[in-house]
Write a structure and sequence with these properties.
The complex is a heterodimer of chains A (about 250) and B (about 230). Chain A has about 250 residues and is α+β, with helices and mostly antiparallel strands. Chain A is built from 5 helices and 12 strands. Chain A has a single domain, classed as GHMP Kinase, N-terminal domain (Ribosomal Protein S5, domain 2, 2-Layer Sandwich), CATH 3.30.230. Chain A is about 30% helix and about 30% strand. Chain B has 4 helices and 16 strands. In chain B, strands 8, 9, 10, 11, 12 and 13 form a 6-stranded antiparallel beta sheet that branches. In chain B, α2 packs antiparallel against α3, α2 runs parallel beside α4 and α3 runs antiparallel to α4. Chain B is flat. The chains are: A alpha+beta (about 250), B alpha+beta (about 230).
Chain lengths: ~250, ~230
């Protein structure tokens, strides 16, 4: 949340990248991209490129971390060394440990963990290219990967950030808006039950601004939820499989 | 296969299921009197229960399943068996058809041996009790084992066992499909090779409609046999 007087974040009622105040960057999700993982998803969100993979439920190691009555959802958020303009020093740091914990807890809200006592569901989130909003992107991709892995869950988690730039509440902050804006509010949302499973705020907002930012983020999460569902439908739709059948009938 | 098969309804986690007068079965959950899908899968209704048949995921052991396990460890009075579940199962000397003296487990079953097992109980902690002391269960000394994703097991077996009996008929092999996705095949080499090829085809086209017919024509062509007349 620095300030840089040289950068105009809003010009002629539009944002730097030409978006409206309540407009998302372009999001594409593809489910089932990794063969060895039980479930996976690849997400592109503006310039963000994120890969998520799910393994499990499987035996929890270390054993002392097992929960006798439920499975543990263990997410690991990691940024590739080449994901940012300057090299990112590899390995877990303060920020990535925080995001790992956050995502784990958000996903635990939807997964029926009591079905797999003593086990662990491993979720790996690899940020290949970062440009603001990777924690939301990571969570969004991770929940698609979980569904792809056949993990029982009550809904898909959708996530999106809103914030404030130059005194204006806006949706889905871009790189410069994040760096030079006044506030950033990532939200994780469960549409079916209308619950919030992730909420943070960096910077300052008045009560009214906060309400506006929340409404904006939740609306966007509903839209993202649709994109997530579409990605899964595309992977599993019977229409696609019907084409296989034709190949099979003709080829054999 | 019937025409209804073309309208297989894909459900995603959290989807509400229209289920007037139906009870929640597998792969679903109930909240505020409504039934929702708990996992990604295809809806089916059986005996008044609405279920979601998984289209992905690992093997989840349940009581009564017959599976193929491999012995991973050996102790004085039990063997540890990997059954492709999150946790290994324990095969106690009381659950084998032989009288095994304490410390003599190794002369009956060795590490690496494959067993045809029945899961007799799964408790709340997902601890399994298994046995090979029942008719049809045994140590597998010959043949080969291949693996497919466990959720595709019903496709390899087919409706009422149609697919698997056809495979056996054409290839002349003994085949056993474990619920955990491991398949044991034994017979002459050509038959085994053909069976593996056919199963791989089923795996790749698991959702195809009219799969049994397609596999049959493949087997006919490969073997030159025809059981229709």
């Amino acid at each position: 949340m620095g300030s840089n007087k040289d950068i105009e974040l809003i010009e002629d009622g539009k944002r730097m990248d030409g978006r409206e105040f309540d407009e998302l960057r372009e999001i594409t999700i593809k489910a089932g991209v990794l063969k060895r993982a039980d479930g996976s998803a690849y997400l592109e969100w503006g310039k963000n490129k994120i890969m998520a993979a799910v393994y499990g439920p499987r035996e929890m190691h270390p054993r002392h971390a097992q929960e006798t009555r439920k499975a543990v959802v263990r997410a690991r958020y990691n940024m590739a060394a080449f994901s940012v303009p300057d090299r990112k020093r590899p390995g877990p740091d303060r920020r990535s440990i925080e995001i790992s914990k956050l995502v784990s807890e958000a996903l635990e809200k939807v997964v029926f963990t009591e079905k797999y006592p003593r086990s662990v569901i491993d979720v790996f989130i690899e940020v290949l290219q970062a440009s603001a909003g990777t924690r939301c992107g990571g969570l969004t991709a991770a929940s698609v990967a979980l569904a792809d892995a056949g993990i029982p869950m009550s809904d898909l988690v959708a996530s999106c950030a809103s914030g404030k730039i130059e005194g204006q509440v806006v949706l889905d902050l871009g790189k410069n808006e994040d760096n030079y804006g006044q506030a950033d509010v990532p939200v994780g949302y469960i549409p079916r039950s209308d619950d919030i499973c992730l909420l943070q705020m960096d910077g300052n907002l008045t009560e009214e601004e906060y309400e506006e930012a929340m409404d904006m983020a939740i609306e966007a999460c509903k839209e993202i939820h649709g994109i997530q569902r579409e990605a899964l439908r595309e992977r599993y739709s019977t229409e696609l499989k019907d084409e296989n059948e034709k190949d099979l009938a003709e080829g054999v | 296969m019937s025409k209804d098969e073309t309208k297989r309804e894909l459900l995603l986690p959290g989807d509400e299921i229209e289920a007037e007068g139906l009870k929640p079965g597998k792969g679903v959950f109930k909240k505020d009197g409504k039934i929702y899908a708990a996992k990604l899968g295809i809806k089916n209704i059986r005996k008044g229960y609405v279920n979601v048949a998984a289209q992905s995921g690992r093997y989840d052991p349940s009581e009564g399943d017959k599976v193929i396990g491999t012995v991973s460890d050996i102790d004085a009075s039990y063997w540890t068996v990997d059954v492709n579940a999150p946790f290994p199962a324990v095969l106690h000397v009381n659950d084998v058809p032989w009288r095994v003296d304490y410390g003599d487990t190794g002369s009956y079953i060795q590490v690496g041996d494959a067993l045809l097992i029945k899961i007799t109980d799964v408790d709340e902690q997902k601890r399994m009790q298994i046995t090979i002391d029942e008719e049809g269960l045994r140590k597998l000394d010959v043949g080969q084992i291949i693996e497919i994703p466990p959720f595709q097991v019903p496709r390899v077996i087919g409706r009422g066992g149609s697919m698997i009996s056809m495979l056996k008929k054409y290839t002349g092999c003994k085949i056993f499909v474990g619920q955990n996705g491991r398949i044991w095949i034994d017979g002459d080499l050509e038959g085994q090779y053909l069976a593996v090829k056919a199963i791989k085809m089923i795996e790749e086209n698991a959702q195809a409609i009219g799969l049994t017919e397609a596999i049959e024509s493949f087997l006919k062509k490969e073997t030159g046999k025809d059981f229709d007349d």
